[in-house]
Amino acid sequence: MITTADEDLLRRAIAIAAHAVTLGDAPYGSLLAGPDHTVLAEAHNTVRRDNDISAHPELKLARWAARELDPATAARTTLYTSCQPCGMCAGGIVRSGLGRVVYALSTEQLVELNPESGAWPTVPQEGPALFEEARAPHDAYRRE
Questions:
Q1: Could you tell me if 60 and 33 are in contact, meaning their C-beta atoms sit under 8 angstroms apart?
Q2: What separation in angstroms does the CA of 79 have from each of 18, 58, 106, 109, 129?
Q3: Where is the composition biased (Basic and acidic residues) (predicted)?
């Protein structure tokens, strides 16, 4: 359930997205808050500026949390973001151990506003293959 405090922090994430536009960056903003609603870190999208496809604010904050927070603290945080995290960011959020995500625009709403944002092609994937060869480095890593 989204609380009034959540809405306030979500508005701040939207303001970060709006500020990103004034800097020439894409309109995505996020912040990470502790259980007491204290803002721990903020970020906005810098994909174009950094020429880095991974420079989404949600992924930046997930990486920050993985580096800077112990797992118990990370699990009590909430990521507030102006748009629903994409698949890349969602994977980073899961691996970083963040406790919760609250977003403003859903992916579907974003695509309605900007159809180009949903125009990613599907990349074919083939596999699995070479199981015995591929497992060797994993087996060696676990023996150490």
A1: no
A2: 18, 8, 15, 19, 37
A3: 132-144
Amino acid letter, 87? G
Q: Cα dihedral angle (137, 138, 140, 142), rounded to 10 degrees?
A: 160
Provide the pLDDT for residue 120. Answer: 85
Which residue from 1, 64, 57 is spatially nearest to 31, judged by alpha carbons? 57
DSSP state of 69: S
pLDDT at 117: 85
The total number of residues shown for the chain amounts to: 144
- In angstroms, the CA 139 to CA 69 distance is 29
Digit-coded pLDDT (tens) for 69-114: 999 999 999 999 999 999 999 999 999 999 999 999 999 999 999 9
- Among candidate residues 7, 58, 68, 126, the one labeled active-site is 58
pLDDT value, residue 49: 96
